[in-house]
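[job 4417] fold queue: 2 targets
>>> target A
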Amino acid sequence: MDPTFKNVYLNVLVTACPSCHMMGAVVGSVDVTSMEPAYTAMIDEVATAMQPGQCMGKGKLIVPGDCEKSLLYNKLSQATPVCGRRMPLSSMTTPQSSLDLLCAWIKAGAKNN
């Protein structure tokens, strides 16, 4: 699968995130219910969730070119992320193929394509 934002959105974000990350759901979190606002809110943006123990000021959600420094990738791929809790909060884990797609897109510059 091509590492495009459209594929990341449809195969990673839409499958695991909208139940919590929608307009007005989690204070300060990214709304992923539509593609364009989700992209704009994540690229080079510092995490701002205000919930106790979350990632406010702990890094950027997506760091183009570096999936290891991208909080989104970290929170989806690590059992114990650098801040907050592993995502998604349900017992579901993100499939390796989805993580690979996300990382490939980030490494390719995280373009809005």
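>>> target B
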Amino acid sequence: RMTDPKLWTELVSYGIGVALSPIHLVLLLLLLLGEAPRRRGGLFVVGWWLTSALVVLGLLTLGHGLLLDMSHGSKHRTGLDLIAGGALVALGGRELIRSWLNQDGPPGWSRSVDRFAALPLPLLLLISSATEIISPDDLLLFAKTAGVILAQGLSLQGEIASSLMFSLSASVLLLLPLVAVLLERERVLPMLQQGKTTLLNRGELVVGSVSLGLGGYLSWQGIAGLALR
């Protein structure tokens, strides 16, 4: 079942959904533009990656303990699909509305990002992990990822490998600028600055569009599951 292309497609899709966090991406870019960029940026990305993997593994352990049936059409999976789909559609609509309303300037959260980036690194990592876990849209994607893995009936090693694959997908947008800085920081500094500006001006539009797409897919999955029951 580890070779099922649908499994990997869903893991990567949900991971990208988690990765599209404008606040965390801007925070990383600020770290890479500041002092000790390789150390601070590297630890930030490692913290994000570990948090994603551990949350999914924790949900898998919980799912096994509750003996949840996550096969397509089961009440647990159908309910999760419908809840996650509806929530992501609502989130996507909200972000698109915010993007339209904030056309004259950066979003309100941008005023706090500089202060977060100036925090001591251990505190910043703790806050980053906490916000990743408690974010409603991220939590729904974590739960959906765990459900997809549970439905495959994988071995323990397979579940760990799948969780790490998801976590890698959830970290890929953070890894790209970090790798660029590790290879040649001075050359990519203008691109990092431009990336930060673009995220501040267009981040809500991107998140809204992706959330609508994922939400529509999950809603369709949930409706299809209802038809099977």
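[job 4417] complete. Note on B: The two ends are 24 Å apart (CA to CA).
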